[in-house]
Structure formats: structure tokens, C-alpha cells
Amino acid sequence: MRILLVEDEVGIIQFLQQGLEEEGYSITTASNGEAALQLLLENNFDLVLLDWMLPKITGIEVCREFRKKNKTTPIIFLTAKDTVQETIEGLQAGANDYVKKPFSFDELVARIKIHFRNQETQVLNLGSIEINLSNRLVYVNNQEVTLTHREFELLCYLVKNKGKVCTRTQIIEEVWDIHFDYDTGVIDVFMNSIRKKLNIKKEEDCIKTIRGVGYIAND
Prior knowledge:
Elements: E1 2-6, H1 10-22, E2 26-30, H2 33-42, E3 47-51, H3 59-68, E4 75-79, H4 84-92, E5 97-100, H5 105-120, E6 123-126, E7 129-132, E8 137-140, E9 143-145, H6 149-160, E10 165-167, H7 168-175, H8 185-198, E11 207-210, E12 214-217
Parallel strand pairs: 1-2, 1-3, 3-4, 4-5
Antiparallel strand pairs: 6-7, 7-8, 8-9, 10-12, 11-12
Helix pairs in contact: 2-3, 6-8
């Protein structure tokens, strides 16, 4: 799991980075808000630990700008600000959680694990393909791929039923919500588009066509 740690105090950065890496997390650091925002917009992180008071751009401004891009990566504020109004302001800016300084490292790790547990139910995987259900984003080898609404729904249906043959009738009924005779050839058109966008090579195809029946997704 990749965590972006944004903090301007060197001692805290070193302490948290060492401790979190020992817990098995991959840590990237930033010491000012401007660098943090650039990293967030150019990379895919699983969680952000964000200090409020930062040079150049404050943490709360980073949070607001990041959320404007419809990014849903969990953000935990690490801050000495502790009034009720400040807590509310941070949450309204888009933060998911709030840990007040000084804090227990064990408590922080526990909160991080809770957020990752919540995320696990929102992510589907098929080989090198990752589907984030909460923000409807698809990645192949960590590179974002843009799918249409119907392509996304079709891919999700197949991956949710990984290992099972999905018939054309089932797909039309569940994905298209059509419950009468309909030309199921439209499914092939969407599958061709999905394969092309995901750059799935024929010999490595993780979504196989079962001729005359439907499709099956397998790792």
C-alpha cells in the first residue's frame, strides 16, 4: 500500500517514515503543500497523511484542491489544531479522518488499517487490472484507463463473477437491464473496446470468449 506523508518537520517525517515502512507500507514524502499537490495529481496513492500547517500551500488547501479533481483517496489530517470548528473545517474540506498532535503511533497505524480495510471492499482486481468502485477508476499496471459508463459496468460484472461463465443473456439482463429479446452482438462491440483500452494481448487475455455462450474472467 502506498502512502503519501506530507509534513514539514524533519523529525516527524523520519519517525513516521521509518515506523510505517516497518509496518510494510511504501512511503513517499513531501515537505510543503505545493510539492504534495503535484505528487497527488501525478501519482496514485492509497492514503494520504497530511499536516495542516505547511509551507507554500496549507494542508487544508491541498485537500480542497485535490477533492476538486474528484479524487477520493483517503486523507488523514495530522495536526495540532484541535478546536471543534477546525475539526469541522478539515472534514468539510474533504478529509476522512483527523489525528491530533501529539498522537500515539499505534493509534495512527490502527486508523490507517481501518481505512485500508474499508478500501479493500471497494477494489476489484483481475491480473494487472485494478478497478476502484468508489471513484469508478480503472488502472492497468498502475496506469489509469478511461472507460465509458457501459464499459465500466460490463468489466465490473465480469470481474465480480471471476471464474464463472457469464452468458450473453445474463450480461444483457444485468448490465444493460434488458429483459426481452435483444441483439446480444452489442456485447462483442463493447468487449472489443475494453480489450483495446486495457491493452489485453490475445495470448494473455484474462477475459476469454466462450463461443456461443458468453465470457469468463480469470487471473
